[in-house]
Design a protein that fits this description.
Chain B: Keywords: Antiport, Cell membrane, Membrane, Transmembrane, Transmembrane helix, Transport. Chain A has 118 residues and is mainly alpha-helical. Chain A has 4 helices and no strands. The mean pLDDT of chain B is 80. The chains are: A mainly alpha (118), B mainly alpha (158).
């Protein structure tokens, strides 16, 4: 029984990692790809790490707090990385996809509300 | 707020000394007893129980997990559909949160949710620019963030 539960968690993690990889290839521009990368790291890491945690507690009788801490640290660092990549890409002039529906940032930048940093 | 945590801790330590059994589980029992005592005396002590904040925080985490599962399935649908029908765009999101900590927490939660990504802040910290992978209308995006994350954060940090 425990093996089935562990396998389900590992499979969920692996599937979302795979989805993230597919998304990075298929999506059209830098910003949607950054989205995909952060998604893969959140759900994929949760799935694999919970699976690993359950495996250690069932098979080795070890409650491994380190494994759970991994989730916490990925959750703290992933948004900062995604934000910095998107922000610097935008200020470096990487265009958003031409089929994008709206771009509020561009209009506000024009009005000098948000000055780009030098 | 600090004084009630101090009270709670000292009740736990007194409990540990009284039972003369020094282990983490005794400390935990003492801590729970301290919480119960604080709850009983809360009308005399004239402050809000700090434990309600912890409950609100747990609630926020649960809301976040729920939102993340929904958004994950949505994004998976977009990625796996044979033709890319996504309508990405950047939405200006006006926030009511004031302190830097609150805004940081909100933007982290938004970025961790698949499909949305915070790209920039305005100088007065009142506007977040959120890149969304699939927009129906601007109002819908703002509404969904406002009713889930911003409400939860206000409950935790107010």
């Amino acid at each position: 029984m425990s093996e089935i539960v562990i396998s389900i968690f590992l499979l969920i993690g692996a599937i979302f990692m795979l989805l993230g990889a597919i998304a990075i290839i298929r999506l059209p521009d830098a910003y949607t790809r950054i989205n995909a990368a952060t998604k893969a790291s959140t759900f994929g890491v949760i799935g694999t790490m919970i699976g690993l945690f359950l495996y250690f507690s069932y098979a080795h009788d070890v409650i491994s707090g380190k494994v759970l801490l991994t989730i916490v640290f990925v959750f703290i660092t992933a948004p900062v990385g995604g934000f910095m990549m998107a922000r610097s890409a935008y200020h470096a002039g990487v265009r958003i996809w031409d089929k994008s529906v709206r771009d509020d940032l561009k209009e506000d930048l024009k009005q000098k509300i948000n000055k780009p940093e030098h | 707020m600090p004084i009630q945590i101090l009270l709670n801790l000292s009740i736990a330590i007194i409990w540990m000394l009284l039972s003369s059994h020094f282990s983490f589980s005794t400390f935990l029992v003492g801590y729970v007893i301290g919480l119960a005592l604080l709850y009983l005396f809360k009308s005399f002590l004239k402050f809000d129980l700090y434990f309600t904040k912890i409950i609100a925080f747990v609630k926020l985490i649960l809301v976040f997990i729920k939102e993340m599962i929904i958004a994950n399935l949505n994004v998976a649908k977009i990625v796996l559909s044979p033709k890319l029908k996504a309508k990405p765009g950047i939405v200006a999101y006006p926030t009511e949160l004031n302190s830097a900590l609150q805004v940081t927490l909100l933007s982290s939660l938004i970025t961790l949710t698949p499909g949305t990504l915070v790209m920039a802040f305005s100088d007065d910290r009142k506007t977040l620019y959120v890149h969304t992978i699939d927009i129906d209308s601007k109002e819908k995006v703002i509404e969904s963030i406002k009713t889930t994350f911003e409400k939860g954060i206000l409950e935790v940090t107010d």
